[in-house]
Amino acid sequence: MSYNQRETPILAELCTFLVEDVYGELAARVYSVLARHGRQTLAAVAKASYLNSRQIKYGLVILLQQHLVFHSGNDSQPTYYEIDWQNSYALVRLGKVTKLVEDRFGRKAANVMTNLLRLGHTRIADLKEAYFPSETESDDDSDEDIKNGIGKKRKRGNGDTNQTAMTNGVTNGGDVKPVVNGDHAHTNGGPVGEPTQDDAEDDDGEIGSVEELYEVIERLIQKGWVRTMTESQYLSPGDMHDILQQETIDQDLGGQQPTGIKDKAICHRNTLERKRNMRDKWLEVPRFSRKRPADQDYSNPTKRMKVNGANGWSSTGGAAPEDKLVIRVNPEKIAVAMRTEQLVSLVEQRLGHVTAYIYRTMLQELEANTPRCYEEYPEPPTAGDEGGDNQIDPKNLVTARDVAKKINKNFDICEGLDPNAIVSITRKGHVRSSNVLSQPIDPSSLNTDEKTRIIDKHIQLLSEDPTHFVTWHSRAGYSQWHIEFPEIAKQLIQTEIENTVSARKGTLGVKLIRALRKKGKLDERATCNAMMMSAGDIRGIVNDLTVQGIVQTQEIPKVERREAKHSLHLIWYDRQRAREKLLHDTYKGMVRILQRIQFEREKVQPLLSKAERSDVVGNEEKWLSKGELDALRKWKEVQEKLSLQLFREDDLVATLRDFHGPLVSV
Amino acid sequence: MAAPMAPSMVPKEEEPPAVDLANNEAASPADALYDKCAQRSQGTVFFQRDLSNMQVAETMAELTMLLQELCDRHLMKLMTFEGEPCWKLRSRAEADKLRRLTPDERLLYHHIDQVQAEGIWSKALRARTNVTQQVLTKCLKSLESKDLVQSVMSVKFPNRKMYLLKHLRPSEDIAGGPWQSEGDFDTALIETISQIVAQHIENETCIKVPGNWNDYERPDRTAEIAHKKAQVQGIRDIEDAPAVKPYQPPRDPNATKIVHRTSPQYPTSASVAEWLNSKEVLRGKTVREDDMEQLLEMMVLDGRLEKISGTNYRTVLTAVDTKVYNGFVDAPCGNCPVFDLCGDEGEISARTCVYFGQWLETTSEEV
C-alpha cells in the first residue's frame, strides 16, 4: 500500500472533489483537513478546521463508514485518522463497479452491489432490513459492530437503500453513470464466463425474497467481490506494519529488536508473511448457515425447508447467524475485473472481436481465483532460491476445452482465422484460390472437439502476439494455458504511454520511445542510427518529449572542465518515471473535468433548480419554455460527455496504477 | 598479431603488363624478381623464404639488395606480418606515380596507406606527420588530383574529412551501409525499401480473407420466435422485442480482411536480405544480413513489423480501423499546450478554458 498511498497534492484535490460530490460538504470539509494535514487526531482536526467537534464527528462517521479514512485502532492512545487514498479515489468507479458486476452475475447482484457501495460496510441484517423492512424496530441487540455511530448509519441506510431498491438500481446521483446497459454484454455473444441462471429469469434486477438476497450475497463473497469486514481493515498501512512487525519481533525473535542482517531479514520476511496472512483472512468465505455444498442439497432436500422454518426466514426478520456479519465491497477485485475489461479491449483492437471474446472467456474463468492484480507483499527473494517456485497453481490454468464448453453456441468462432486452418480442422471441402471455403461451415454445427481445436487456434494467435496474452502450459484439455499477468500489465502500461505520445507527437515520438526502451541510454548519433533518421529530424521530438517529462536526459563530462562541447549528452526513457508522470497528469486532467462540470452546472443552475421543482418534474414540457428545454438538453449532453471522459481517464488510472506494483528500473 | 602494416587483401586496380615479361627478363635481376612475383595471383604477400625460392638472387645479401632496390622504386612495399618482414607488389603504374611524389606527399601517402579502408582524419594525419597545415592541404590536394587518394565524409563524425587510398572502398564505419549516402540516411530510399519489405513480409505471414469466405446460412431463430409470438398475440410485448443480434461482420466479398496465417514461415533478416538481393531492387548494392536487420529493427520501432521470438518478424495487424488513444489524451487536457500552467483559478483554468469550450461547444468564462 505504501506505494499507492503516496500522496500528491493533485490526488488530494481530486479525492476531495469526489468526496464532496458523493457525500456532501460536511464530509468533504473534514476530508480536506485530513488531506492537507495528513495523519491527525480528532483534536488536531478540530484545530485545523472551523468546525466544532460534533460536526467533525458526523463527518468522520461518514468517512469511516465508507472506508475513506483509516484510524489507528481502539487502544488507549489518542486515535489517529488518516486518509485511505485508494478507496477515496475508488469513488469515481461507483458506476463502473455496478456494470462489472452486472455483466458477470446479473442485475440482482448489481443491485446488491450498488447498495453496498452506497452504504459502505453493512451488516447483512441491515441490508436485509433495507430490502425487506420489518414492521417493528426489533434490531437493537448486537452493537458489536465497528464502533462508529451505528444508529445513525442504520437510519441513513434505511432511507437510502429503500430508495435505491425501489428504483431498481437506477442510480440517483447525477454524477454516476446511469445503469442503462445489461443488454450490451448479452447480445454480444451471450453472457460470458458466469452464465447465471439469474440472467435468464430476471431482467429487472428486483430481489424477490430474502432467500435470494442471501444467495446473491454469498455468491459475491465466494467469488471474492465482497469481503467480510474486520477491524484490522481500518488500520493504515503504517499502523499495520508497526503492529505486525512488533508481533514478529515478539514471537519470532524473542522480543529482541533485530540487529544483525540475518535477523533483520527474518523480521522483514515474517512481517510480510503476516501481512499476507492477515489480508488473506479477510477474504475467507464465512460459513453460511443456510447454504450447503450443492450435492448435499440434492441428497437432503428437506433440509432447506427445515432450516427455513426454524429460522423463519420470511420477510418478518428472524435473525440468521450470519446476519451479524459485516460485509463490504472488496476493492482489489474491482481492479481485477477492470484489468479483464482492458485486456479484452486491447485484444479486440489487435486481433479482432472473436479472439477478444475467447480471451474474455478465459480471463473470467480465472477471475474467481484471482483475488488481486499483483502481490503487494511479495516474499523477498532469498539467495540461491532462484526458480524454486515455478510451480503454477492449477487454479490459474485454463484449457481450450473449458472455453469451448463455456462459449455461446451461436457465436461464430470461425471468424478471424485463416480459412486453411478451419479446413484442416473440419476436413470438409477446400479453400479456393480466392480464399473462400468451397463448403461453408456453420459454426453452430461443429462438435465439441472441432470447436476446441478452432478455439485453440484463436488462443495460439493470442500467445503469438508480442504481448503474449497467454502462455502455453501443458496439453491437458487439448491445450492448457496460463496468463502471465505481471508481464502483460507492464506491456499495458507501455501501450498507454505510447498511446499518449502518439496522440501528442505522432508515430515519430512513439518510435523514439521504443528505440530508447530497446537500446537504453543513447547519444544523438546512436539514436539516429537506431531510428535510421538524420539528427535534425529527431531533435525537435526529443526536446518536446523531454519537456513533457517522458524522456530523460543526462550529461556526462568527458574532461575535467565540464564543457558542453566535451560532454556526452545521453537521452533515455524510464518506464516508471513516464508512468508516474502520466498518472499525475491524468489525475490533473480529471480534476479539470470535475471543475468544468461544476462550472457548466453553475451556468445552468437557475434553470436546474427550476426543473427540479416538484411541480415541474414530470411536466417539463408544460412549464419550461423551448429555450429552457434546449438548454437543459445541452447541459445533459455536456455532463454526459464530461463524465464519460472522466470514466475513460479512470480506466487509464487503473492501467497505470492498479495492475502492477512499482517498476524497478527499466 | 597484425603488425602496424597489415597486408591488404584488396585487389589492385590493374595488373603489371605481363607482355613485357620477355623483354625485361634480362633487364635487371630486380626486374626479374618483380616479374616472377607478378606471376603469382594478385595481392599475394611474399616472405623472404618465397622470394629466395624464386632463385633470382644467388645469395641472401643479393636478395636484400634487390628488394631494397624494388622498394626504392616503389615497386614493392615492405610490411611485417607477425613480426616477420614480408613484401607486396605494387603495379608499375602506381609505382610510377609514387616515384613522382614529393617527399611530403610520399610521407602522407604512406600514412594514408597504413589505415587502409578505415580512412584517416586530416587532423590525425597532421598529428602523425608533423607537417604544417599549408603543406598538408597542398599535398592532399595534389594526391587527390593524382588519383592516389580520395576523401570521404565520415558518418560517425559528420564534420570530419577522412582520407583513404583511391582504389579502396570506404568501410562501413565511415561511409555507412547501403542505407546511407554521403554520410546521411537516405530517407527516400529507406522509405521505399521498407515499403517493399513490408509488403513482402505481409505476403509471407498474412492472408487476405474476403468477407464472404464462409458463406453459411445464418438462421435467425430469436427473431423468428419473437415474430411468431407477435403474430399469435397480436401485439408485440416490449420484452419480446427481438434481441439485438450478435455482431456479424458484413459479408461483402470486396471487404477483405487480413488475418495471420496459421503456421507461416516467419521471415528472418537473412531470408529477407536474400529475397531483396535476388530481386535486385538496389542497383549495384547488395544488402548484407546486418543491414537488413537494422532496417527490420527500425520497422519494428515504427510499428510496422513485430518480432516473434528471437529472429522472426511478422506484420502488425490491427482489427479496427479507428485509432483509439486513451481517456486522457482524447480530452482537451491531454494535448493542451498550457497544461502545466493551468491552475484551479486564474487566467488559465477549467472555467476559462477555450479548448473545453470548443470541445463541448459551450462558452467559457471570459478572462
Automatic annotation (TrEMBL), chain A:
<feature type="region of interest" description="Disordered">
    <location>
        <begin position="292"/>
        <end position="316"/>
    </location>
</feature>
<comment type="subunit">
    <text>Component of the RNA polymerase III (Pol III) complex consisting of 17 subunits.</text>
</comment>
<keyword id="KW-0240">DNA-directed RNA polymerase</keyword>
<feature type="region of interest" description="Disordered">
    <location>
        <begin position="133"/>
        <end position="205"/>
    </location>
</feature>
<dbReference type="InterPro" id="IPR008806">
    <property type="entry name" value="RNA_pol_III_Rpc82_C"/>
</dbReference>
<comment type="function">
    <text>DNA-dependent RNA polymerase catalyzes the transcription of DNA into RNA using the four ribonucleoside triphosphates as substrates. Specific core component of RNA polymerase III which synthesizes small RNAs, such as 5S rRNA and tRNAs.</text>
</comment>
<feature type="domain" description="RNA polymerase III Rpc82 C -terminal">
    <location>
        <begin position="216"/>
        <end position="492"/>
    </location>
</feature>
<dbReference type="InterPro" id="IPR036388">
    <property type="entry name" value="WH-like_DNA-bd_sf"/>
</dbReference>
<protein>
    <recommendedName>
        <fullName>DNA-directed RNA polymerase III subunit RPC3</fullName>
    </recommendedName>
</protein>
<keyword id="KW-0804">Transcription</keyword>
<dbReference type="Pfam" id="PF22536">
    <property type="entry name" value="WHD_POLR3C"/>
</dbReference>
<dbReference type="Pfam" id="PF05645">
    <property type="entry name" value="RNA_pol_Rpc82"/>
</dbReference>
<feature type="domain" description="RNA polymerase III subunit RPC82-related helix-turn-helix">
    <location>
        <begin position="13"/>
        <end position="71"/>
    </location>
</feature>
<dbReference type="GO" id="GO:0005666">
    <property type="term" value="C:RNA polymerase III complex"/>
</dbReference>
<dbReference type="InterPro" id="IPR055207">
    <property type="entry name" value="POLR3C_WHD"/>
</dbReference>
<dbReference type="InterPro" id="IPR039748">
    <property type="entry name" value="RPC3"/>
</dbReference>
<dbReference type="Pfam" id="PF08221">
    <property type="entry name" value="HTH_9"/>
</dbReference>
<dbReference type="InterPro" id="IPR013197">
    <property type="entry name" value="RNA_pol_III_RPC82-rel_HTH"/>
</dbReference>
<dbReference type="GO" id="GO:0003697">
    <property type="term" value="F:single-stranded DNA binding"/>
</dbReference>
<keyword id="KW-0539">Nucleus</keyword>
<comment type="similarity">
    <text>Belongs to the RNA polymerase beta chain family.</text>
</comment>
<feature type="compositionally biased region" description="Polar residues">
    <location>
        <begin position="160"/>
        <end position="170"/>
    </location>
</feature>
From TrEMBL, chain B:
<comment type="similarity">
    <text>Belongs to the eukaryotic RPC34/RPC39 RNA polymerase subunit family.</text>
</comment>
<dbReference type="GO" id="GO:0006383">
    <property type="term" value="P:transcription by RNA polymerase III"/>
</dbReference>
<keyword id="KW-0240">DNA-directed RNA polymerase</keyword>
<protein>
    <recommendedName>
        <fullName>DNA-directed RNA polymerase III subunit RPC6</fullName>
    </recommendedName>
</protein>
<dbReference type="GO" id="GO:0005666">
    <property type="term" value="C:RNA polymerase III complex"/>
</dbReference>
<comment type="function">
    <text>DNA-dependent RNA polymerase catalyzes the transcription of DNA into RNA using the four ribonucleoside triphosphates as substrates. Specific peripheric component of RNA polymerase III which synthesizes small RNAs, such as 5S rRNA and tRNAs.</text>
</comment>
<dbReference type="GO" id="GO:0005737">
    <property type="term" value="C:cytoplasm"/>
</dbReference>
<dbReference type="InterPro" id="IPR007832">
    <property type="entry name" value="RNA_pol_Rpc34"/>
</dbReference>
<dbReference type="InterPro" id="IPR036390">
    <property type="entry name" value="WH_DNA-bd_sf"/>
</dbReference>
<dbReference type="InterPro" id="IPR016049">
    <property type="entry name" value="RNA_pol_Rpc34-like"/>
</dbReference>
<dbReference type="GO" id="GO:0005654">
    <property type="term" value="C:nucleoplasm"/>
</dbReference>
<keyword id="KW-0539">Nucleus</keyword>
<dbReference type="Pfam" id="PF05158">
    <property type="entry name" value="RNA_pol_Rpc34"/>
</dbReference>
<keyword id="KW-0804">Transcription</keyword>
<dbReference type="InterPro" id="IPR036388">
    <property type="entry name" value="WH-like_DNA-bd_sf"/>
</dbReference>
